[in-house]
Amino acid sequence: MTPSTDSTAFGTRTTDRLTGLVDEIRDVVGRGLPPDITAYLVGERLGPHLGTADLLTPQQREGDPEHYRQHLLHAEPGGGFSVVALVWLPGQRTSVHDHVSWCVTGVHEGEERERRYRLVPATTNGGRARLVATEEVVNPRGAVCGFAPPGDIHRVWNGCADTAISLHVYGADISRLGTSVRRVYDVPADR
């Protein structure tokens, strides 16, 4: 499923809390540390803001009945990072995919489910590549996780009966790229 994208939130009114979070992320990214360490430190900054009533505007909390919705909240000049709010109505999901850069996610409202995969390459005897599920995680409100490619293949969905909202911080300019996805995997999965 492809998200609907709302970039109108970008450049419009943001909350003071979101502005503060962007400043904290800018400080971490500006250190020029390796991607995995950057993701870890960004996650530490994101966590305290999750679940607060004053982080997002009402417009930034709106979903789409057809697809999960992506609200671009901030794209750092120079492309150092982007902050996106994803709004998931019940049952909405991503395809199996990986990312162009490090990523940190935090559940702001509701709960997200995630299935992580490992790609098993095709064998030399004419076999076909396949995905092996390695872990299934339920991320409740306040949960933060971060990762850096390679090894970041996953699928995410809203498995609860209510709207879920998550914040995603990517080490790339999503306003320019349009997506954080590097590759969608259309290979057999073991579950």
TrEMBL record:
Highest rank taxon of the organism: Bacteria
Keyword vocabulary terms for this entry: Dioxygenase, Iron, Metal-binding, Oxidoreductase, Thioether bond
Coiled coil, from the record: none
InterPro entries per record: CDO_1, RmlC-like_jellyroll, RmlC_Cupin_sf
Protein's UniProt keywords contain Nucleotidyltransferase: no
One GO molecular-function entry: oxidoreductase activity, acting on single donors with incorporation of molecular oxygen, incorporation of two atoms of oxygen
Protein residues bound to Fe cation: 97, 99, 154
UniProt entry tagged with the keyword Iron: yes
Protein name: Cysteine dioxygenase family protein
